[in-house]
Design brief:
Layout (H helix, E strand, L loop, with lengths): L1 H9 L27 H10 L22 H4 L4 E4 L14 H8 L4 E4 L4 H7 L19 H16 L3 H10 L3
Parallel strand pairs: 1-2
Length: about 170
């Protein structure tokens, strides 16, 4: 999640959509600022808070059934971060995060363990290839997989409003 938000910031994409980033988690063992450079921290702090549902995650537990529909009605696709982003495909755990775009019938790019999209298709769900290049799902190397995802996010976010609208409605079926 930290790398994704840093990437969105570096590529000037934070203002292209809604971004949620829990920057105030009260956990002595975890601090996002320990994972980024000082200049990245400074840049992100200027844009905080990045909130969609709630700012204080310690007081509210959101499940897949609790969300604000306006974000789905006012966006074209989701970038979903799962609980893991490793090179293991034997420990897939689908959290509430992935069910939100699925239940809202919205395209998504999914950052999770290798093979997560393959597993969703095995469960009977359709994903969005070729409208979204999902080849990243087969890449073992996490840095390479992240780079492919980053490229796809940039490709979609840099479409004109007319292009993204046409793209979105072309996948309605």
């Amino acid at each position: 999640r930290v790398d994704l938000v840093v990437s969105l910031d570096k590529n000037n994409l934070l203002d292209k959509g809604y971004v949620s980033f829990a920057n105030n988690i009260e956990d002595p063992d975890w601090n996002w600022k320990d994972m980024v450079t000082k200049s990245e921290t400074k840049s992100l702090e200027k844009k905080m808070p990045l909130v969609i549902d709630v700012e204080d995650l310690s007081t509210t537990k959101y499940g897949y059934e609790k969300f604000d529909i306006k974000y789905y009605l006012d966006s074209y696709f989701q970038v979903v971060t799962g609980n893991n982003f490793t090179d293991f495909d034997d420990q897939l755990i689908f959290s509430e995060k992935i069910w939100k775009p699925i239940t809202n019938l919205q395209p998504f790019i999914y950052l999770d363990d290798i093979g997560a999209l393959k597993k969703l298709r095995e469960y009977g769900f359709k994903t969005f290839h070729p409208f979204i290049d999902e080849n990243y799902d087969n890449v073992i190397n996490v840095e390479q997989r992240f780079g492919m995802i980053e490229t796809e996010i940039n490709r979609l976010c840099n479409k004109s409003i007319e292009e993204i609208d046409e793209w979105y409605w072309s996948i309605e079926e």
